[in-house]
Amino acid sequence: QLDELEFDNVQIDQHGPIAVLTVNRPRALNALNADTLSEIAQAVNMIIEDAEVGALIITGGGEKAFVAGADISEFGDLEGVYDGRELALAGQDVMHQISSLPIPVIAAINGYALGGGLELALACDVRVASAGARLGLPETGLGLIPGFGGTQRLPRLIGTGRALDLILTARQVKADEALAMGLVNYVADNALTKAREVAEAMLKNAPIAVSLVKEAVRRGMDTTLEGGLEIEADLFGMTVATKDFREGVDAFLNKRPAEFQGE
Ligand code: CO8
User: Fold this and answer.
1) 261 C-alpha to ligand 1 centroid (Å)
2) What is the interface pTM, i.e. ipTM, of the complex?
């Protein structure tokens, strides 16, 4: 059982097909120290193994923060280029693990999402922010650059000009501005409640199709339009071979809700 797993800084709650991973270290605004990053990686591995889980929500514990970044108090241990590179690669691995999950992953941004915290949200498929959330990549103000994917995922999501503005000014944006620039998909009074609604809407659709859409978009972002269209055609072909496709068409023609089995 996922919710019986014991971690120090990560909590998993499962309600039917929705798992909620809470980064729970509120005394440090959920900052990602090495232990927390490792616990997130372990938790995500367990979630992948669990066939019951059809969607994952990632959120932050406490009132103030989603995740306020990598843990700055551990930066003193970093001594040189090699250490820095290793830390960035370790964080990038976890973000990659999240972004390549075959199920929808929604960030419920309930407060500060800064630095590595915003990078965690960027590794998710969809972002829901609470009205009071603050988002930003403050790294240049610390003499760093974003290292958990921010320089790559942010421009892919909102475009180069907007991404460079945010990274070079290191400014925090409020939820409304984040919505206007496409950095978040929804703003709601309660990010977690809205994230559940979004997850439920996604769970109504055919799981194999959902997973293949994610694969098509993800792989397509790394290639040319022509290459991406080939990937789309291949994966489209795979959906046509599923029982769920037959079910979806039959349900439409018979004016009834579809019941997908993930086959
Ligand atoms: N790391 C460690 N501790 C933190 C962090 C953090 N990122 N953020 C907050 N905390 C701690 C504070 O130190 C404080 O602890 P204490 O009570 O023991 O003094 C506690 O959380 C509460 O924070 P504040 O008192 O500062 O709360 P405020 O409401 O006054 O301010 C802010 C909230 C604005 C969010 C403020 O805490 C802040 O600016 N935090 C730092 C945000 C930041 O700069 N994050 C980016 C870090 S860099 C990063 O993420 C790089 C990722 C890629 C790494 C690649 C490696 C090479």
Assistant:
1) 44
2) 0.97
